[in-house]
Amino acid sequence: RAKAAGGNRFELADPEADARAITRHGLTTALPAALERGEFFIEYQPLVRLDDGTVHGAEALVRWSHPQHGVLGPDRFIPLAEHTGLIVPLGRWVLEQSVRQARFWQQQLPEGALGMPLRVNVNLSPAQLHHPGLVADTVEVLERIGLPPGGLCLEVTESALIGADEDLLKPLRQLAEMGVDIALDDFGTGYSNLANLRRLPVSVLKLDRSFTQGMQQHPADPVDLKIVEGIVSLAHSLELAVTVEGVETGAQADHLRRLGCDTAQGWYYARPGPPERLHTLLLADAV
Ligand code: C2E
Ligand code: MG
Ligand code: MG
Ligand code: MG
């Protein structure tokens, strides 16, 4: 970080900041070749139904196995990919892998064992949302791989949709009409107008981790409990399902279940991991 230099724009050199800028630059220029060389991989984190603890899906989370820096999390490179536009081909790759994986899980499971078809959640960046090929690409992948649209849930952050006009919402609306679920990710961090929710083609609210954090201590933060209770009741009155992120303890899960949340995701259930791990969990559920 640049040192506070009292308004002087010629700040003292900060070797750490320089190193970070050089790394950022290096990572940015390495992104396209990394995609071609297959250095990205996806971990899947189970989505669990709070009422009976069964796995009903998984969120796809991309990672970069960098030859020098080791495994990098998405926060290190997604913003860079957004900036250069590489997010579009990278996002398409994530979508294709995830759809293949969901198709594989659906085929592997005894029919109806979970009461509903398993689905995969894929994150969409704002740049992908603005890309004109989004609907066509998504339809093409689903059809080619043979996953019913209901097997896919696209996650869009609340902040990406704040102030969104009809042009931006149209592709999401088209996908929703086809049966693809749309989730509002990191909900509660973006200061959006709650009344605005009715206008959005979303069927799931993903409550941000910051809400579940207040339920970790004993007793739980009463204000957090009230807020979540209010959001859940609003969401349900709009016929939206509520998923909670960042559940790390059994106590949190108990609170969230009592407050009427539908599904949960977090380390308490499982960390993100290779697809085989989820496969094992699913088969354990099914017996
Ligand atoms: P997100 O969509 O909100 O994903 C949830 C993040 O919370 C993931 O971080 C996950 O590993 C982490 N997490 C899950 N359970 C817990 C828990 O119990 N405690 C804590 N402390 N953390 C938990 P991750 O994998 O680092 O991903 C960060 C963000 O990067 C994601 O946030 C998402 O916005 C973005 N991202 C990941 N994959 C993709 C992708 O394929 N495309 C795009 N556009 N963005 C992606
Ligand atoms: Mg997400
Ligand atoms: Mg999230
Ligand atoms: Mg989040």
TrEMBL record:
Give residue ranges for domain EAL: 24-286
Q: Which domain of life is it from?
A: Bacteria
**What's the protein name?**
EAL domain-containing protein
> Could you tell me which species this protein originates from?
Streptomyces corynorhini
Which start and end residues of the full protein are shown? 435 to 721 of 721
